[in-house]
Amino acid sequence: MTNPAPRRTPTTYRVWAPTPADVRLVVDGTTHPMTPADNGWWESFVPLRPGARYGYRLFDGDTWSKVVPDPRARRLPDGVHGLAETTDETSFTFTDDTWRGVSPGGQVIYELHTGTFTEQGDFAGIETKLDYLADLGVTVIELMPVQPFGGNRNWGYDGVSWHAVHEGYGGPEGLKHLVDAAHAKGIAVMLDVVYNHFGPDGNYAGMFGPYTTSGDTAWGDVVNLWEKNSDEVRNYILDAVYMWLTDYHIDGLRLDAVQAYHDPGAEHILAQMQKTAEQAAAETGRQKFLIAESDQNDPRLTRGRAGGGYGLAAQWDDDIHHALHTLVSGEQHAYYSDFGTTEVLAKTLTGVFYHNGCSSSFRGRTHGAPVDTHATPASCFVTYTTTHDQTGNRARGDRPSMNLPPEKQVLKAAVICCSPYTPMLFMGEEFGAETPFAFFCSHTDDELNRLTDQGRHREFAYFGWDTDDVPVPSDEQTFLDSKLRWDFSPEQQRILDAYTTLLRLRRTWRLARPWLDEVTVNHSDQWLTIERDDVFLAANFSDREQRIPLGGRLIYSFTGARATDSETILDPWGFALVART
């Protein structure tokens, strides 16, 4: 498939089910026969009726299954084990007619988890914080996955029905209402989507057809993008991409762990996703974008298709996080082992990746490839002081703000905000949240919960973490403890004011300039500067005062930095944003 498939709106119940010998439709308790059609599809002559509850019974040649939900269900009101509900896609009226979308360049992204961002724990709760986010300087909110999962508590990466929305968050209408409200505040909405595996609880897709194939991603079976009958699995994904960007008015998608897509074909699924996003943009008259997460340091993700790449708008950049985190925290275990010096941070700030074809001691091999910084804008790379992964995949789910004093927290933020890359905040970091963000789940199967707990302990032991204090993922208290608390102490208010100021200065001084050759980075063993022709950031990564041989007019410092015409004097772990005179 070289171009996105034409999309039609079905008027009767249809399901792709090449595996069973027979299929029956059950609508509101009444069973109907189905007729085989082309390419493994089954059709009925029963018209779609909004609000109807439906599912399918599948015959494997010997027995009929229980009634199971449609893999393409748009709504699962009773959860992943319940019947689907037929939806009316015209029932919600958007009011964002003047919204034209955004591209990553110049944006500030805010990653959040719907269930723990507010005490309310749903889309409506997020709406109550839109003014707060706008005042902070956020222009894009990134929702961690909202597809249905087993139980009521989950990070979202265990989704099983890729066209639906978790009912506990507000369902399809709740998500649309949030998007509409965000657009009214000038804030775009991204959705984190998982197309590299299915969750283990409530996954009935394999009863219908070969949605997965042999192999393991460490989270689940490999999604079938290449073996027999894979065309419809690809369409399942591409139709979901199109749906989010059109029916839900979502502005962009964050694609989880794309290195786990096994696709050796001539046209990679990522290129097809990008074409689908471009189709959605053309049809809606709004900008749409895709951002990839990958641990491969692969410049092909954001390289244009004409140059052999996939043409995505951006990708996450863990190397800058690792370089910054190790410098400030002193941690250098596991995948942090090659980081921890200002020289490494300088390399990432000017060349995107540290591992760009050089040796990785953690992996025991060379890793990554260099980015052509003359052809790839800095906005193509998303940088951060922490993420849900970098916090939640610690043994206790402890945030940097639980271990670092305010000056170190804000120093990291200053580097991210003053770099030319696209900055992203993880919910709560902007005020130094003191609540953890631990891994949590509530699978409906007790054995799954037990195995998940065991798996977390094995993983942390492998990386050298102390596993004694690992919280039990299925314990409701683990989830409740991870909810943000919005009553700020004076110290937290001071950190929030600093973040707000840094994001304002990023806009005022146009620090999101597109090309890396407009930025110079210099360093010693203790300090580093990010320099432009009119302004520079000087950052001290030591517990001693540092004098930087660059001067000018002090614009901002969180601590007590000073600037003269010839030098900038930095407090321990301090920074200064200075205008050249």
User: By CATH's scheme, which homologous superfamily of the largest domain applies?
Assistant: Glycosidases
The CATH topology label of the largest domain is: TIM Barrel
Cα-atom radius of gyration? 25 Å
Structural class: alpha/beta
**How many domain units?**
2
Return the average pLDDT rounded to an integer: 95
Which residues form runs of ≥5 with pLDDT under 50?
none
Helix content: 25-40%
Shape: elongated
Q: Summarize the main sheet.
A: 8 strands, parallel, barrel
Distance between the termini: 57 Å
Strand order of the largest sheet: 8-9-10-13-14-15-18-19
Strand content: 15-25%
**Number of E-state strands:** 27
CATH C-level name of the largest domain: Alpha Beta
Provide a count of the helices: 14
Q: Architecture of the largest domain, CATH level 2?
A: Alpha-Beta Barrel
Task: List the quaternary state of the chains.
Answer: single chain
Protein name: Malto-oligosyltrehalose trehalohydrolase
GO cellular component, one term: cytoplasm
Enzyme class: hydrolase
Subcellular location: Cytoplasm
